[in-house]
Amino acid sequence: MIKIVFVGRANVGKSTLFNCFAPKYKAITLDTPGVTRDVKSEVVEWRGLNLHIVDTPGYHNDEIISKELAAHMNLQIQHEAKNADVIFFVVDGSQGVTVRDQEIAKLLRKTNRPIVVVVNKCDRKDADSDVFYELGFDLVIPISAAHQEGFFEILELLESLEKDEVSDKTGEEFSSLPKIAIMGRPNVGKSSLTNLYLGADRQLVGEMPGLTRDSVSYSISYRGQDFTLMDTAGLRKKNKMDGHLENLSANSSREALRYTEGVIFIMDATVVNPYDLDHQDLSLMGEIVEEGRCLCVAVNKCDLISNQKELLEEISFQVNKKFFDIPVIPISVKTDQNVDELLIVILDCIKRFRTRIPTSKLNEWLRDIVDHHTMPTENGRMLKVKFMTQVNVAPPKFSIFINRKIQHLHNFERFLMHRLREKFNYQGIPIRIMWRARKSRDRR
C-alpha cells in the first residue's frame, strides 16, 4: 500500500485533490484559507491501486490563525510527511511560485522523501506549470483537481511506486540462501570448483568432457558463507553438440539460469585466446546477461601460464567492450588460488542485485547528472528528465520519467547505465531502464 501525503500552502486545492481519490470520504472544501485544520487519512482503492491518502492542513504562519495553532498544524504536517511513501506538494498553477511555496519546498527537502510537485488549477488560462521547476524538484505534474484532468501521469507514477513496494515485499524471499550457478564450456573445471566449495569429491571430474550431464544443486557452508551452488553441464554451440543426450544436458544448464541469481562463468587459461575471444564464450555470457543474472568470469588454471597479468587485462577488455563492467578473476582450483575471493565477489554482486536504492538517493544522483550533462535533443527540443524510481530488483530495473518521447536515446541510456554502475557499484550486474514520457491529459 502506497502512502501519499498532500502538502502545500492553504487554499491550493489539497482537499479537492483528496476528494478525487476518495469520493466516499469527502473532505470539506471552500475558497477560504484554513478550512482544513486536522489531518484527514483514509485507505482507498483508486484505479486498481491500494492507497493510504492523507490530507493535511495548509502550511500556515500566524497572520491568519494563532501562532500556537499554526505551530501545532505544521508539526502535524511534518510528522505525516516524514512517514510518506511519496509527498504530493500541491501548488496553485494560476498564481505561480510564491514565497510561501519556496519556504515549504525547503521544509520538504528535509524529509528525504520522494516529492512530486502537483500543479493544480491548470484548467485556467493564466496557469503555467513549467515555472514550478524552479522549486528544484524533478517531477512536476499539471492537473485540474476540480475537473479531474491530468491524472494519467499520476497513475503511471503510482503504478511504478506500487511495483517498487511489491519488490520490497518480495524481498522476503531473499531471506533464502544466495543461489549461484557454475557455467562454462566442457572441461574447464566447473565440477572441480564445486567439489572445492563442498569440501568433498561429490561431483565426478576428469579430463574427458561431458562427465556432468545434469544440473546438480547443493546447499553449502564454506568458511562462514552459506549459499546454494549449482554445477551445470558444459555448454557448446548447438551445431557442435554431439547427440540428443548433450542437447538435453545443455537445455538443463540453460534452464538452471531461471533458478539462479549469480553465475560464475569459468574459462580455461591454457586454451583461451584473449585477443580473439571465442564467439561461443561471448554468446554464452550473452545468454546470462539477457536472462538478467549477476555474472563473474573466473579464468581457471592460471597457475599454468606465465603471462597471467596480460591475459586477464585483455579478457577484461574484451568482455567489458561487449557487455559492461564484469569482474574477471584469475583462479586455480588445483592450488586454491583466489577461490575465496571469487566467492566473496559473486556473493557481493548478489547482495546488490537484491537491493533497492532509495528514491531520494536516485533523484539526488539524477539531478547532478542533469545539471552537468547536455541533454539529448530532437527537432530542436531538449529532453527534460524529471524523476527516477527503482521499480524492481533482481535484476535492478529503473523507471525514468521524461517530458516527451525521443527516438534516439540509446547513447544517453548507455551513458546513464555507465554512471549508475559507477555510483552504486553495479559491477557484474545487468540493469534495466524504462523511459516513461508524458502523455496527453487523462480526462476521465
Write the layout of secondary structure elements.
Layout: E1 2-7, H1 14-21, E2 40-46, E3 49-55, H2 67-82, E4 86-92, H3 99-109, E5 115-120, E6 139-142, H4 152-170, E7 179-184, H5 190-198, E8 216-222, E9 225-231, H6 243-256, E10 262-268, H7 279-290, E11 294-300, H8 308-322, E12 328-330, H9 339-353, H10 359-371, E13 377-378, E14 381-382, E15 385-392, E16 397-402, H11 410-424, E17 432-437
Parallel strand pairs: 1-3, 1-4, 4-5, 5-6, 7-9, 7-10, 10-11, 11-12, 16-17
Antiparallel strand pairs: 2-3, 8-9, 13-14, 15-16
Describe the model.
- The chain is of the alpha/beta class.
- It is built from 11 helices and 17 strands.
- It has helices spanning 14-21, 67-82, 99-109, 152-170, 190-198, 243-256, 279-290, 308-322, 339-353, 359-371, 410-424, and strands at residues 2-7, 40-46, 49-55, 86-92, 115-120, 139-142, 179-184, 216-222, 225-231, 262-268, 294-300, 328-330, 377-378, 381-382, 385-392, 397-402, 432-437.
- The strands form 4 sheets. Strands 2-3-1-4-5-6 form a 6-stranded mixed beta sheet, with helices on both faces. Strands 8-9-7-10-11-12 form a 6-stranded mixed beta sheet, with helices on both faces. A 3-stranded mixed beta sheet has the order 15-16-17.
- Strand 16, helix 11 (410-424) and strand 17 (432-437) form a beta-alpha-beta unit.
- The two termini are 23 Å apart.
